[in-house]
Structures
1.
Amino acid sequence: MRTTILIHCPDQSGIISAVTGFIHSKGGNIIYLDQHVDKEADVFFMRLESDFENNGLDVEEFKKEFASNLAAHYQMQWSLHSDDVLPKMAIFVSRYNHCLYDLLSRFNSGELRAEIPFIISNHEELGYIAKQFNIPFYHIPVTKDSKKEAEEKQLKLLKEHEVDFIVLARYMQIVSSTLIHEFPNKIINIHHSFLPAFAGAKPYHAAFERGVKIIGATSHYVTEELDAGPIIEQDVTTVSHSHTIKDFIAKGRDLEKIVLSRAVNLHVQRKTMVYNNKTVIFS
Amino acid sequence: MRTTILIHCPDQSGIISAVTGFIHSKGGNIIYLDQHVDKEADVFFMRLESDFENNGLDVEEFKKEFASNLAAHYQMQWSLHSDDVLPKMAIFVSRYNHCLYDLLSRFNSGELRAEIPFIISNHEELGYIAKQFNIPFYHIPVTKDSKKEAEEKQLKLLKEHEVDFIVLARYMQIVSSTLIHEFPNKIINIHHSFLPAFAGAKPYHAAFERGVKIIGATSHYVTEELDAGPIIEQDVTTVSHSHTIKDFIAKGRDLEKIVLSRAVNLHVQRKTMVYNNKTVIFS
Amino acid sequence: MRTTILIHCPDQSGIISAVTGFIHSKGGNIIYLDQHVDKEADVFFMRLESDFENNGLDVEEFKKEFASNLAAHYQMQWSLHSDDVLPKMAIFVSRYNHCLYDLLSRFNSGELRAEIPFIISNHEELGYIAKQFNIPFYHIPVTKDSKKEAEEKQLKLLKEHEVDFIVLARYMQIVSSTLIHEFPNKIINIHHSFLPAFAGAKPYHAAFERGVKIIGATSHYVTEELDAGPIIEQDVTTVSHSHTIKDFIAKGRDLEKIVLSRAVNLHVQRKTMVYNNKTVIFS
Amino acid sequence: MRTTILIHCPDQSGIISAVTGFIHSKGGNIIYLDQHVDKEADVFFMRLESDFENNGLDVEEFKKEFASNLAAHYQMQWSLHSDDVLPKMAIFVSRYNHCLYDLLSRFNSGELRAEIPFIISNHEELGYIAKQFNIPFYHIPVTKDSKKEAEEKQLKLLKEHEVDFIVLARYMQIVSSTLIHEFPNKIINIHHSFLPAFAGAKPYHAAFERGVKIIGATSHYVTEELDAGPIIEQDVTTVSHSHTIKDFIAKGRDLEKIVLSRAVNLHVQRKTMVYNNKTVIFS
């Protein structure tokens, strides 16, 4: 049985030794360890993957001892994940299909190891894709007046299906504080610019206007401040004077889908940790 | 004899045919033609390289006929350059040596085909590099009080040496309106961020603070608005949570010198045109 | 009405002037011109897009005059395409779905402007994707013994549907000389390495074995020599010692689909020309 | 006092715990730990940076205990480096100046933390650069007949100055077995292609001939098989049909110098380990 442990705590001498010693004493073989110290904040981060032979690990007992022997002493925030439990991921879309197709074709081929209980959209257009992949599709229109009601419907579905995290696959609505507080650092957005450049609406138009030679896409966790959450992944591509805004948009689509899918996979594999509005991304 | 012609004018039917016909009629063989139409502004841009056999071209006569037969009719802004006339380039530096070394080693090996009449610096530190390469070095300190006087000295040198364009190779001073007006779209700066992100001071610190996964450098023509001039060249490199600000600065140095040298070479080869605060970069 | 003209011929003085003059005389407005001279082979290449107002162009008449007035004189190989005629593209696949999904989702959103009369596969697995997108799917198994017969079936379908070009979207069979001769420079393959490195079978395994720090994908026209045809497009991504072969394959999938789709779009937009086993790719 | 420990040994359970426990018991604070397991070869690699407070570490005693308590038990190959001891690096060049300038300007600004006791060249051309930077320059010509004698002179200098490793900064000679055996995985070369593509002579010509769309550079440790040693660092840049061989060479120069300097810095910082003709590169 393989488990992944994520830890962060105030930096202090001896943590690695203590944690690896504990796992070793419980019959675990550490097959991956990556650690990081944020020197400014004096915070220690670690991600460990361990194999426990013969599946002989009593997870609850392990957790109890870890909590009392280590976590309390080092003031750790920590979590333990069995790799055979797939996280549940809801997808929100509007009218663009490229990110949705990219996620679903990865899901389909087993590359994206998550469950997808449903897709929510404020438009009906992409319902046919949900049908193609046999995934329930909920059309929840959002207007100025219905915003609150729509949100309640969304939350009800998310809770009913015990959703772990949300992917905004070019969902063209600003999500509410309520949703953000229910899913802190668990809503993944794709913004079609190289943030912090061109935050907000119409980034390709702004990039064109400015005459940049490179455009980008940024996947980040959603926080209350628009397009200002912790960045998970970014990528860029070159453009030139010969490209029109339409070309920017077409080139950008390729970036958006690849960057978003990479970010989702990092999250699913528990390779992301968030601190001070920044991410630690384990390799 | 090889000449390069740069043209921009209102877009209209028949320009390419008229210009190429004219050159052909004068015994020129077009060995390169690149053209671009800015559809929004309805402006036509063209760059032509032509060979005139046996050096039989009377440049002044050609210019006169071109002006009266073509330029007037099509309302062209245009220029003609003989490839054997090297542009004169002044370099301004402060204390960082990487861009300066990069420019001078290219100059030294013949890759950068320009004359460098002198280097100006507000500090003495890099004088030894000028000495290494046998290039006159003028130390012109700039303080709040001496700013105007310093500028006059700079302008005097620039005029005396008939300098064509200026390269700010990490010159840590804001150049004045006067200088900008004397050298419109002829002052090339390197900014150590992926503009328009992180304009202004300390971009690596700001990038670190924001937790970006990619940093960049931007070379642009200097205009009165800080870091907002027409972009010539940009490039980026990946960073991660494990990099400190010091690492950002070190990785950035490589970007800065390569991006600046590429921009300078594009300018020297007359492959840049500026319009509406954007550049057309010919290939 | 917009047309694209592609020309190559022995390099000589006056071609651009002659062609642009001719188009102008026929009421055409050149909205894009790109040209290239292969200095070693002394061959001239040109791509022109022209608008003819009021759709007043008699295409057959234009072609006849172009042929007699220009093409004969300059020994041109040339073609003229109306932009409203979509090329017909057949897709060949085996068992991997990522390139197929990428092509079809672009087709679906109107980004890939071609007709897709059918998909051929030597396996049944991906039939469901064809069904998802309502495209006829022909399962033509290929064994040592049935190879010739299979090929005849393929050719029959290709001819019946007047297919213009073929895309091998990770088709794990070597196509025959017959097919290659019927579709010269019209079969586009994606090879999962940075050619010419790691041609042939199992390139990711070979790359892993060699310990490279960058892997790539290459799209090329198929010629009789395996993986040695004219390269249309390449891209790469970084890898490290920490990546397994499985990671190489996963990262490679993203490259493969993007590189293949880019190459297909270049072909569809008639931006590729082939000469001496190399491509000219217009911007 | 900061030390870096590099370890590799057969993979087995408990190593991390044992090593980190030992360091902790000696008053060391681990400030960086990166580890890797080569699953195929079943080999474990680790790099640790530790701070020992008050400089109270008795290095010799630490080494002795480490050897007897840990290294023997786990069959480790290991080394310990104090960060205040700079490695001694010899540079070999021929006629190209770009890599040399790049290394020396980094050396000059303190970015490259090594000693450079001398530069060796088979030509006199670059002697002036050595003079610019006040570094001894030895001109040791190499002809068919003098090859052995030249090598002896090189070896003598290398030993006299207790050189730790050698950088071939575009040294256009094949180094002998003798030298390779004296400096195993301690001779760093820069090859001007994306290996394993275009090994051997004239890679840019071969790349041009093949019509690739991307060119590269590779820095690797020198082994007896030409251009086949463990790869440290690679990078690439795009090219097109419009680039001549001369353009390839010019674009390649920028790659070569950056890639070589990065590889040298990784080596100097003891971030490289070699196993089975591959490298582990720590972050």
Note: Chain C has two domains: 2-82, 89-281.
2.
Amino acid sequence: MIKYMEIKSSKRSEFIDITGHIQNLIDKEISTGDGICYLYVPHTTAALTINEGADPSVKRDIVTTLTELIPHVANYQHMEGNSDAHIKASLFGSSEVLLIENGRLALGTWQAVYFCEFDGPRERKLAIKIMEG
Amino acid sequence: MIKYMEIKSSKRSEFIDITGHIQNLIDKEISTGDGICYLYVPHTTAALTINEGADPSVKRDIVTTLTELIPHVANYQHMEGNSDAHIKASLFGSSEVLLIENGRLALGTWQAVYFCEFDGPRERKLAIKIMEG
Amino acid sequence: MIKYMEIKSSKRSEFIDITGHIQNLIDKEISTGDGICYLYVPHTTAALTINEGADPSVKRDIVTTLTELIPHVANYQHMEGNSDAHIKASLFGSSEVLLIENGRLALGTWQAVYFCEFDGPRERKLAIKIMEG
């Protein structure tokens, strides 16, 4: 069964750490077993990524560099003023597949799972499906 | 079982909406249940992405911006003249994992699933595997 | 069960072909059946991609072009000097999902699976989970 998590962003571009929320869901659903965790963003100007959770300057560097490569204002045809956010969403991707080992997300020491807002502030949702096995 | 879908592109860079085809396969295979839909592109100059299906100017902006960042002609070593297409394929990715809820692809309101041709026109195929659960 | 593969990179940026290793694991675990192969990189400056395995100039072009777009030295805030590697890791992604058909990775003719080192040389590991079905 898909669970939907509500996410509220507060800036135009923002990486929101959702690792704890996902682990809480796993705790409830499969306890100490192994499994797969599927994440899916049902939006066209947001995405997911996994990157460093320790030093917040890493996510700032990612957001800044992306915006230098794909500026907010340019010669875009789409009239809503958010083509850059659509492009970033495609580059980062709408889904992630995580492994679960002994009831824990099998992340690396420095990894956090981020919901990537590229056209906020908005109210978003994230689809999460956890399967044992 | 993997099903293979034939795709014929007509331009060098082209995003082809395959959402309806995938939904048709799901209708036949799992009817009203839940599941996972795995998509895989067995080519090195094509990819998959999920983005806006309503306004076609979004996909034009994505293709145009990608080509500004990664030009067709540059100082590439690969002699086939399609290094840009290989690079775009790696940035967008060869696979997507979609969720199925009550027999429907769990997409957002504005989302469509695109096969991304970066070195067409060509005849391509897409591997689709649907699993109930 | 997750299997961990050890990978030793020898340069700062390097694409290491891991196709054969993954196929060997599949041979042992599911022999001639169908299934899914989940790959996950538990590092924040490395990633995975699928691209051409035949001509090594393709991977050189990918690495070179990425480094032109996202230089090693720039006005980054993160003090460890590897922000470019974090950004490249997010663009390429930490996971891949591959299909298995009759005991073989369902890759295209020219495809190889690469572990992408962006901040080597280092000792890395890759999580691999193979599920029949």
Note: The first strand of chain B starts at residue 3 and ends at 8.
